[in-house]
Amino acid sequence: MRGALLLTAARTPYRRAGLSFPVGAPLTIAILALGVTQLRQLLADPAITVMVGQDNGQFLTVPELTADVTDELLQAFIDDAPAVELEAVAQAPIDPTEDIAGLRQMLDQRSAALGVANDQLLAAQDEVRGLAADLASVRADLDGAKGQIAALQAANQQLSDELVKAEAGASDRQAQIAELQAALDKAKKPAPKAKAADE
Length: 199
What we know:
- The protein has a domain at 4-94.
- 56% of the residues lie in helices and 12% in strands.
- The chain has three helices and six strands.
- A four-stranded antiparallel sheet has the order 4-1-5-6, with helices on one face. The chain has a two-stranded antiparallel ribbon with strand order 2-3.
- Strand 2 and strand 3 form a beta hairpin.
- Helix 1 (36-44) packs across helix 2.
- The radius of gyration is 50 Å and the shape is rod-shaped.
- It starts with a strand and ends in an 11-residue tail after the last helix.
């Protein structure tokens, strides 16, 4: 039934937002009969299931309709509801203690949700700090590797220079050996014989 809410209390008799729930039966009430404060209290009470009437006569839960929506949206929901003829539901004056209890319940729920969100935030911060430490370690390893590469390159250049010098020295020695060999060969040649006296 469009324009009505079907309210089911987990235990009966039960009172909330000035409404008395009969024993063992749900309560059907026109949406237009509620105020924003009453509707929010009903939605915030975990002991109450709120179902919205449809054109086909069925009642369905609406996930978007929660106690966390703004007063403006709740008022718009009430104002958009069509008028329906239902048996009048006797509404007792709203007990201030009910308001306080409802507010405390909402505060406890939001505090619990805030605690969970805070724990998730702390866990995320710890993860970020861990990642930052890992990144710093990787950067330090990279800097160390760069230093080792530079040292190896310098040592390689030094070896290359020494090799060039060694090759130049070997070439000089080969030239000296060739000169000594030529001198030795020259020294080994016999001296020419002297001519006879009568000639």
